[in-house]
Amino acid sequence: MHTQVIIIGAGPTGLMAACQLARFNIDFIIIDTKAAPTHESRAILVTARSMEIYQQMGLADVVLQQGQLISKFAIYMNGREKAALETADAGNGLTDFPNLQAFEQFKNEDLLYQELKATGRDVLWRTSLVSFDQYEDHVVANLYDKSDPFRKISIKASYLLACDGASSLVRQQLGLNFDGGTYQNKFFVADVQLNWQQPPNKLIASLSRINFCVFFPMYGIGNYRILGTLPESFAGKDDVCFDDFKDVITANVKLPLGIEKLNWFSVYKLHHRCADRFRINRCFLLGDAAHIHSPAGGQGMNTGLQDAHNLTWKLALVLQGVAGDKLIDTYHDERYPFAQWLMKFTDKIFAFMTSCNWLIYQLRTHVMPHILRLILSTKWISKRIFRILSQIWYSYKKSPLSLQFIKQKLKFSAGDRCPYVITEIDGKSQSIYHLLTEPKFHLLCIGSSGYNNQIPDHLTAHIKVVNLSLNENWQKLGVKSGLYLLIRPDNYIGLLSDEISPGLITGYFDAFKGN
C-alpha cells in the first residue's frame, strides 16, 4: 500500500492534520487503535487562534453554535468571589473570536471527522502501529488490524506523522528523550450536571489550602466540568470513585452544590514533558506525542491543532515540488520554542494555584485577590491576558521563514500572526481573515495599484493576490505608504516589504528548495 503521508492517531491533532492535508490535495492514510472517535469530553477550551483555523476551514460557526461561551472568570475563596475577569468580548479588536469558548474534545473530534469524511476519506479504525523503518526517501509502517489479526498491512509513505499521544510508540521507537516530570498530586476530572445558582457561562476557580477545584461551564443547561487536585487523604487509594469525595468538593467551594448526575469521572497523574526533537528524518511528532503539560489555561489540545496547522502546509509544498527539505525543518524551529515556553508558563500557574506550601497559600489567599482585582480592572492588562491565553500573541520572528525589507515603522513584523484589520469586503466591514481562507499563500497589497500579473508563473497556483486600500486601520498600525505582506497558509507573515517584485517572491521560495 502506498501513500504520501501516514498519520498515526486520530485524536484532534491527527484529524486536523488529515483535514489540512486534504485541503492541499495530499494523499494520506490515518489510523487509530480506537473503534471510533472518543466520547469523553477531555479537553474543553478552544482558543481564539484555534477558532481562526476553524474559520479558515469554514467550521467556526459550528463551534459557536454548539459550544458554550464563557463570559466571566472568577476566583472564589471560602464561598466568596475574590476577583473576576469579564471575558465576554475581552479580545475585541484583536480577533473575530474575542471570547473564551468551551467546546469539548469529543466535539472537536466529531467536527473534524465529519469534515474528513466529507472529502471522501476515512480513518482506519481498530488499526495500530507495530513498527516502522525509515529510508532515504520514504518510510515503511507495519500495521496490525484488530478486526483481522491474520492480515498484515505494510504502508510505504513519504512521511509519517506521530499524533499518537503522550505514550507515543513512534517517539519511543525513535529513541527520543521525553524530559520533564510528574506532578506530585493526583488529579480528578468529573463531568456533571449541577443544580446551583451560578450563571451558566461563568468559570469558577475555587482555591483552598487542602485542594483546588475549577468549574468549567459546558454546552447544555447545568453541564459542568469539575477539575481539581485529589485531597491527600485519598493519595494512597487506587480505587477512588466520585461519591467518595463529593463532600470534599462542597467543603472546598463552600457554595450550595446540587450534583444531579455524573457523566464521566477519572483520576490521573499529570505530567510535564517535552521531546528533544520534533523531527527525525521523515518522522514528525505532533501534539501530546511531542509535549504534555498541565491543563492550566486550556492550552493543550489547541497546541496540537496548531502543530498540525504549522506542519501540513510545509509538507504539501515539499510534496508538490515547490520547496525542499529546509522548509519542513522549520516545523521544529517554530513549534519547539513554543512548547518549551508553554511548559514553563503552565507549570508556574499550576504550581502557584495548587501548592500546599504555607507561604504560597498565604500569598494566594491574602495577597493575590487584591493584585488580581487591580490588574483585571485595567483594560490593557485584560487584553494582554487574553492575547496570551488565546495564543494569538505568539510570533515566529526568529524563524528562517520570516523575512522583511521595510523602512516604515510598523507595529507588526515578519513572523507575526497576520494583523487583525477591519476593511470593506463585499460591502461589509469585516476582518481581512475572511479573505485568507484558501489553502495557499496570500499576497496582501496594501495601498498599491495591485500585483495581479507579476506572480512568477511557477507560483501562480500557490499565491493568491489580495488588493486592499490603505485605510485608517492600517495607518494605526504604522502603514504610511504601499506595503506588501506575503501571508503563509497558516496566516503568519512570511515576507514583509515596502516593495515587491517577481525576483523577491521567487527568492523567498527558492531559499527553501535545498536539502
UniProtKB/TrEMBL annotation:
SUPFAM superfamilies: FAD/NAD(P)-binding domain (SSF51905). Its cofactor is FAD. InterPro entries: FAD-bd, FAD/NAD-bd_sf, RIFMO-like. Gene3D superfamilies: 3.30.70.2450, 3.40.30.120, FAD/NAD(P)-binding domain. It comes from the Bacteria. PANTHER family: BINDING MONOOXYGENASE, PUTATIVE (JCVI)-RELATED, TRK SYSTEM POTASSIUM UPTAKE PROTEIN. This is 2-polyprenyl-6-methoxyphenol hydroxylase. It comes from Mucilaginibacter gossypiicola.
